[in-house]
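Final paragraph of the annual report: two paired records, presented back to back.
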Amino acid sequence: MKRRATLLRWQCAIAMIVFAAPAFLHAQTKMQKGRTVVVISLDGFPAYALDDPRLPIPTLRKLAREGAIAASMRPVNPTVTWPNHTAMVTGVDASEHQVLFNGLLTRPNGGGRPSIEPWRDKELMVHAPTIYDIAHQAGLTTAQVDWVAIYRAKTITWQFPELPDPKGLIEREMIAAGTVTAEQLRTFEDSSQAWQDQIWTDAAAEILEKHRPNLLLFHLLTLDDTNHEYGPMSAASFTAMASLDSRVKQILDVLERTGLSRNATLIIVSDHGFRTVKHRIHPNVLLREKGLLSEGPSQSKADAWVLSEGGTAVVYVTNPNRKVELVAELRRILTGAEGVDRVYGVEDFPKLGLPVPALSDQAPDLVLAATPDYMFSNESEGDFVTQVAVGGTHGYLNTDPKMQAIFIAWGAGIPRGIHLNHISNLDVAPTIAALLGLKMNQVGGHAIQQIVKHELVNDSRKLQQVKKRWRWRIESRYCRAMVVNTARQRNQLGTPACSRPVTEERPGLECAHAVLRSARNQGYPANISDMHGLLPLDWGCIRETIVVNAL
């Protein structure tokens, strides 16, 4: 009876030690789930705009002053909306995520004009893991408002898409609250861009206030439309940027009113900059003149097509039997043409961050780059070059200073008054991951050290709290007695969990190793030297495999 009671006591000791580990994990998971990261993309906001002191953006300047701001953020090629929003959530460029347009390229048979289809499933378009995929897999909640290349994403918890559905959950909540009517949502695409931005902001506020996601991706379009029509830094552009500042303030007010701001990080980005243009190039006109393209009212057919991306254009050969011959001929025709700065071949694609045709059906055969003041257009009739009265565009190579985007970070985990140098938008996704206690592998960027380093300091303080909690939960006599009992009572206790024999003389840092592994899994910046103070060195502690197996 006495021996049975002794055995029961040792089993209780094992339970106490082993089950402390899940308690540790649960506490840290709860802490991770308390974090909120809100990413607001201001489409078409150039980095150089922030240098103008006349720009009325008090909220953005406040966030930059109280948080971190980059001198500029380099986009990926092509410098258009969907490829760069995808880069910001995957951490890789278009050569890997394979989003080259504001939609999916489809090629009809028989040499017809390729088309761009925006409403295609995310799983079909995006060929790299996203931060919202990783967050969802980790048990965090995700949301999106007007984000792109995200249609029917299975890892988004709440959404209000670019084209809202009156039957959607968030849409029904907003209809019930009187924010918008079902009829307004049905005709949403016919409304002004400014009104759409307001409704998207209301939807983001609704999601934050009622559902409190760990990650919200939110995209606003007014400025991009305005810059295209009236040109960047025009009076209309200034008004649009001031309006965006008000939208950001609305989200900031929601975070503060709900108390989310205590554990929330706000990241403001843009996808690309803007250039003023004076001339429009029509490469398909040149192809038509050379007999490579024929287009009628009922049928279009060509050996090759040129698709505009604004400051660049992509060339697709549609006659596979003459591909080598046609690529050489097209290169000869287009090189030196007015407004064409350079023609890039497949051999240049890797350094441009573009996929090659052998690896992606989205990849072109040639890329054209325009000179400043020129942009490409898709028309195949009329003059090769036409004048532009007023307007702007983007899509130029990502090395162009005018194409650089903005990055501002504020809130939890962000030190005050940090001025970053020039960063890459490939750094956005791993930085979000670090703020959420997650990690993204195989990305082209990295977590921004000036931000993450501050987060690691905070995590080190949390690690000290973990150490104290473990000291409180584990008593040395139980840990030592359990090892002794395992060594002496092997037959009675059955096969031990250890892969090697446990003896009373075994060094006493096995528990520390187990806690270290758990800490790393939770995103702590721990190494074994950090853990030496966790348990007294003279403890004969349970093998790490016992604890880890219990996790």
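The closing record of the year follows.
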Amino acid sequence: MLPVGSFAETNDAQERRVDERDISDIVDRMTLEEKVGQLFIIHVYGKTPTDPDYEDTNLSNNRGAKNFKEAIEKYHLGGVIYFNWTDNIGTPLDAAQVNALSNGIQDIAMDQRVPVPLFIATDQEGGIVARVTEPATVFPGNMALGATRSTEYARQTAEIMGTELKSLGINMNFAPTVDVNVNPANPVIGVRSFSEDPELVSDLGVAQVLGYQSQGVMATAKHFPGHGDTDVDSHYGLPIIEHDLETLHEVDLKPFKAAIDHGIDAIMTAHIVVPALDDSGLPATLSKPILTDLLRDELGFDGLIVTDSLGMSGANVVPPERVPVEALKAGADVLLNPPDVDLAYHAVLDAVQSGEISTERLDQSVYRILAAKVKRGLFDNPYADPEAVDSIGSEEHLQVAEDMTDKSITLVKNDYDLLPLDGEWTWLVTGPSSGKPTTLSNLLSDKGLDTESYETSASPTAAEIDTAVSLAENADAVVVTTYTANANTAQQQLVQALLQTDKPVIVAAMRNPYDVAVFPEVDGYVTTYGDRDISVRALARVFTGEVNPEGQLPVTVPEQYDFGHGIGYEDISLSAERIKAYVGQLEDGGEIDQPAVRALQVHLTAVNRYEDRQLKDKVVKHLEGFKLLLDRQHESGAIGEKGHHILKLKTDSLIKKWE
């Protein structure tokens, strides 16, 4: 191994002191071709360094080589990125396979003329963006963390993910996402953000940076200068951020500044146009005013600037061969995932050879790349201990994940105390398959509830909606699991059709918390911020009352609920006095006429007196009489269908309690 670092006393046990002279010596020994190769992190298909099953796939997908080994030797790569769809990481995880792959490609890199260890990267944000899943520890994601308000949980989750990534040989994580999600219509960030509040995003982001880097895994704050206020996905288009300079500094840039102040290793660029910072129309990834003038010079960041994937539409505003060249000229160090490896590599090589990019500019980025590898101990030991995978998904790790997820579930609305779910009622659990209604129904059934499930497609068809309505007619109440229903008209139609049945309807939003904005009249609303199984399990515990919900909205639901809103279960048991409160709520909702309200409340006051005296027989008798009164009022039109149904269900539950 090359002696290019020494251990330093820092807050980070995994950080090494960088010796500038030794790194400069390595740069001087490298050929131009080797230096250019260090700039690139690419994906390659395959489960092993020389996987024969993916040779044609790699060649046909412009990897420039048949396998990892050939790509490393041919292009002198700085790193690789693992995905599930490239079969580098399986689902479920085969930890031994990933560990062996990582060690195998590091062997190849360390066997080159100038041995330089590889960045081995992935996107392990937690929640909806996680490449390493079960049996590893799975977390519900950033916005769920935001709902807990806990920097301790933020650091713990990053430490656990960092430990498990490191055991797989993954030394660079493209996380945390520190975009401030101020736009409910954001199609690409959403629950990947901690919050709409820049202070909360900064606090939780810094905690995760420290957590990852304490385990020797490079953290990468993304997406600079802030992707939180877009309604276009930069994978498929070019978003424009219209914030003025004051807003950018007070909102979007604040979490990046905090990360820089706490020693973040890398920052990933966004393929977004920000006219207040650069009026050229170029995305930040290709903008020298944003990457060099702002990030390097004004904010003083001297770590790695990593582009977002160069294959995304938002980056392709110039010809393909110009994208990596312009990114490097703008100030980027690491060129991530070009769609055509050979084209990108030779475009940069040609630009240096022609003098368009100076050797000095190239050496600056190569130096930073090598310094980052030294800082995280890769020159000392780039390998992962095969036995370290035994810690993946440990009981301790899994318990932290379950506890944190329990704390994140946010109860937003709970009319008529429908939650916790009444074990005496029959429940239809329905919704799009992405909302996991069957999984939830099975969990509730295992806990003793009488449930039936029905899954629709992601955008329910008219026939599926009709089926759900038919099933709801035979249930006492309905739970609908939605998935980004605020942007899905068909899911909205499903909820509205179920509301028309006059059965109580509870919505569980399994991704965006904003869904309630499009059906505010639902009787109950809970949000989980993600659909991972760990979130569904926590939701089931909240639904049955095993867990009292403590989450607070980390965002505003426009015109409905404020940032910080969240309710728990009141310590009030079902009683005649409580049913009187439901009568009042139903009156406010137009379900009961005023004369009927008075008659019902008089009857319930009498029941309450018998309850106080513990006269069981009289309580039950008068509750049976109350049901007859409900029927008469319903027949006369004084009580609507929904009000009649809810009050009879609650009365039956109270009778059962006294019997």
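The two ends are 77 Å apart (CA to CA). This concludes the annual technical report; the extension proposal builds directly on these records.
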